[in-house]
Amino acid sequence: MAKADKVRVNREIRSDTVRVVQPDGEHNVVDLDTALERAREHELDLVEIAPEADPPVCKIIDYGKYRYKQQKQEKRQRKRSKSMQMKELRFRPRTDDHDYEFKKNHARDFLENGNKVKAYVQFRGRDIIYKDQGMDLLRRLIEDLQDLARIDQAPQMENRRMTTILAPHKKKK
C-alpha cells in the first residue's frame, strides 16, 4: 500500500479536533466538523497531513492534485535510486592467464556499470590443497582492479570456496 493510500480524507479523519491549514496559509485548531465545513466552503478536501501530531494537522487542498504530486515524487525517487546488483565470477585454483584476463575484463565492465563483483575460487576434489594459489589469484584480481574498486570483503574461505567481494568506488559529482 502506497503512502498516498494511507492518507485520511474528509470523514475518514478520526480525531475530534484538528489543526487546519487553510489555502491562504492561515492555520488554527478547530473541531472536525468546523474544519470539514471550511473545506466545503472552499470546494476542496480536508486531507490529514501529519496524523502523529497532537492535534493532527489537516490541510484544505484538492486531494486529487495532492495524490498526483505524491505519485510524481515517489516515481522521481524510484528513478533516482539505482539498484546495485551482485555479479559473480568463478575461478579455479589453476585458472590459465588468458581465462583470468577475460574474466578480469568482465569484472572491470561490471564495476564500471556500478555493480558489485563477487569473485570466488572453487576448490573441487583434491584442489583444496591449492589454497595458496586461490589466495594469490584473488589478490592479483584485487590489485588489478584497485583503480576501479574497493574491497568490500577480504578473501576468506567458505566451505570449499575462497570468496572476495569488490565494490565500485563512489563517484564524485
UniProtKB/TrEMBL annotation:
<keyword id="KW-0396">Initiation factor</keyword>
<dbReference type="InterPro" id="IPR036787">
    <property type="entry name" value="T_IF-3_N_sf"/>
</dbReference>
<dbReference type="GO" id="GO:0005829">
    <property type="term" value="C:cytosol"/>
</dbReference>
<dbReference type="GO" id="GO:0003743">
    <property type="term" value="F:translation initiation factor activity"/>
</dbReference>
<dbReference type="InterPro" id="IPR001288">
    <property type="entry name" value="Translation_initiation_fac_3"/>
</dbReference>
<dbReference type="InterPro" id="IPR019815">
    <property type="entry name" value="Translation_initiation_fac_3_C"/>
</dbReference>
<dbReference type="Pfam" id="PF05198">
    <property type="entry name" value="IF3_N"/>
</dbReference>
<protein>
    <recommendedName>
        <fullName>Translation initiation factor IF-3</fullName>
    </recommendedName>
</protein>
<feature type="domain" description="Translation initiation factor 3 N-terminal">
    <location>
        <begin position="9"/>
        <end position="76"/>
    </location>
</feature>
<dbReference type="Pfam" id="PF00707">
    <property type="entry name" value="IF3_C"/>
</dbReference>
<keyword id="KW-0963">Cytoplasm</keyword>
<dbReference type="GO" id="GO:0032790">
    <property type="term" value="P:ribosome disassembly"/>
</dbReference>
<dbReference type="InterPro" id="IPR019814">
    <property type="entry name" value="Translation_initiation_fac_3_N"/>
</dbReference>
<comment type="subunit">
    <text>Monomer.</text>
</comment>
<keyword id="KW-0648">Protein biosynthesis</keyword>
<comment type="function">
    <text>IF-3 binds to the 30S ribosomal subunit and shifts the equilibrium between 70S ribosomes and their 50S and 30S subunits in favor of the free subunits, thus enhancing the availability of 30S subunits on which protein synthesis initiation begins.</text>
</comment>
<feature type="domain" description="Translation initiation factor 3 C-terminal">
    <location>
        <begin position="84"/>
        <end position="169"/>
    </location>
</feature>
<dbReference type="InterPro" id="IPR036788">
    <property type="entry name" value="T_IF-3_C_sf"/>
</dbReference>
<dbReference type="GO" id="GO:0043022">
    <property type="term" value="F:ribosome binding"/>
</dbReference>
<comment type="similarity">
    <text>Belongs to the IF-3 family.</text>
</comment>
<dbReference type="GO" id="GO:0016020">
    <property type="term" value="C:membrane"/>
</dbReference>
